[in-house]
Amino acid sequence: LSSIDASEAQSVPGFVCFVSAKDVPGSNTTGIANDETVFAKDVVTCVGHIIGAVVADTQEHSRRAAKAVKIKYEELKPIVTIQEAIEKQSFFKDIKRINKGDVKKGFEESDHILEGEMYLGGQEHFYLETHCTLAVPKGEDGEMELFVSTQNPMKTQEFAANALGVPSNRVVVRVKRMGGGFGGKETRNTILTSVVAVAAFKTGRAVRCMLDRDEDMLISGGRHPFLGRYKVGFMKNGKVKSLEVSYYSNGGNSVDLSHGVMDRALLHLDNSYNIPNVSSVGIVCKTNLPSNTAFRGFGGPQGMMIAECWMSDLARKCGLPPEEVRKLNLYHEGDTTHFNQKLEGFTLRRCWDECLSSSSYHARKKLIEEFNKQNRWKKRGISIIPTKFGISFTVPFLNQAGALVHVYTDGSVLLTHGGTEMGQGLHTKMIQVASRALGVPTSKIYISETSTNTVPNTSPTAASVSADINGMAVHNACQTILKRLEPIKQSNPNGSWEDWIKTAYESCVSLSATGFYRIPDVGYNFEKNEGKPFSYFSYGVACSEVEIDCLTGDHKNIRTDIVMDVGTSLNPAIDIGQIEGAFVQGIGLFTMEELRYSPEGNLYTRGPGMYKIPAFGDIPTEFYVSLLRDCPNSKAVYSSKAVGEPPLFLSASVFYAIKDAIYSARKDSGLTEAFRLDSPATPERIRSACVDIFTKMCPSAEPGTFKPWCVRV
């Protein structure tokens, strides 16, 4: 809208502040699927849609100038919720289906048929560092250097180059590290970066922009809210025969990665259960909210959560213990999934048995039953939940990675690969891989940063595969260097690493190598229901115990036991940390974090004052994590397995332990039938579900309606 004149601040860097829509959104503009503009043109499609940007000499000046901009709107009727989108048929194209077997025949053969639905709310990424970019123009040939907090240097480079009208080779993107990402910086940073790059190009000086927390939460989107409708047929013993399921997600105002999220949700609709007959459809709703995007799990947790919903109700209908019904339906080694991939190296049943044993599940269940008999307003519950998470990008060509290894004459090694570091320990693991491959201590190996001028065309650091693919690329580069050193080592077998490197240099042997790797034989066709979408699966089981207060709806996480198959761990300390972190983030998703909107789609919960993420007190008081032993994985570097996303869904064990405790409370009120509990299980929902004389005084909203201070999108 305005930019600082270059002559007014010769040595002052610029700061950008966004002007975003603050009123009622209108029809349609558009995401990363080339259906989205950087700035809104004529129509704003959500509250928070960026209209323009102000460049100034200081951050404070840019903010004051942005606030001074006045915009007149013609109000249009927005579509905010999934229900509204269904009524008005507001969907993005490319509806996906997975069908297997004869669903109709399966229902005919079933003893019981259960129908229902479940809603799952979205989730804010809440990375510690918000979206941030520093652009430094080089002053010749359109060169630009970008320091960006992004998981996706390649797309950031490509979008900035397109905006500047230069080839990608003039733009360098550098990522030292991020203060957290969780998927939120896979695509949504590209708009911010493109704006800052143009501002730097126009002014001829460095420009920086870092969003405030409230701006970041309003603009950048989060995890997709889901609505699942299901019909399941099963036998008296709890064996599932047939499943018909429809998934609806709230994609927001542009496609972004919504189709990929829905693909993974459909591929995980079975969680860990063998369902012989399946009919499923996944529909992405087009609404007037900021575009939702990738978030740790990428649709998998939503797909699996709805599976556990009907599995939980099914067990109640049969009058059988939930753990017995779940185990009865678990896959076996060699079984075929609903998307026709054979399960090899299926360790889930080992995880299940170990978790039952280490958690003393049956003994504690008896103690909980006794506790509940003696207490009317405090109830305890326990639940054990499995997970099976597919590892690979569902877009086949993204399953590739590159690496660059330099060895200097003093024997030190500079390592670069295509993955970005966001606190998950990827660089540490890559140094370990190089150390093991080259046979040198980790102290000799250093990773400076991730940059597009060292490793080009990188896939985003996402889908839990970064250690797998980048590790193999690093290993490949190291093998190239070792092969070159072979004659030198043979001529001086007792020499040191430094001796061999010095001799190689003096013998004019190259001490630099690139590495490359792609995951072989992955690719899936939805229309034919054939192919192999995943390279392998990560497995885990969690058992959680909770205590709820029936009068306030509050709950305490008493104990959690997790058994996780991570193959032969590259770094057990990092992997256990990832499991613990994912689990606690999942506790937020399923029990605490609730995004609240106005009927116009204006986000109320902008910041920690209104939006509650897990704190120290929400971590289970007793928290035990163990890694499954003797389960090497032949599909990844040094027999390891992916660990970033798979553990997150295990926190569903807390949700279903809460539901178990609510069943006990309802039983005291004379209610024994199944009931609906949507996610997250907030104190309000827990309190309302514990039906008693008090809840009858405060009737819930009628189905399909909502209160203006909390619209369920």
From TrEMBL:
Pfam families in the cross-refs: Ald_Xan_dh_C, MoCoBD_1, MoCoBD_2
Membrane-spanning parts: none
GO molecular function, a single term: 2 iron, 2 sulfur cluster binding
InterPro entries associated with the record: Ald_Oxase/Xan_DH_a/b (IPR000674), Ald_Oxase/Xan_DH_a/b_sf (IPR036856), Ald_Oxase/xanthine_DH-like (IPR016208), AldOxase/xan_DH_MoCoBD1 (IPR008274), AldOxase/xan_DH_MoCoBD2 (IPR046867), AldOxase/xan_DH_Mopterin-bd_sf (IPR037165), OxRdtase_Mopterin_BS (IPR022407)
Domain Aldehyde oxidase/xanthine dehydrogenase a/b hammerhead: 1-77
PROSITE patterns recorded: MOLYBDOPTERIN_EUK (PS00559)
Protein name: XDH oxidase
Source organism of this protein record: Anthoscopus minutus (Southern penduline-tit)
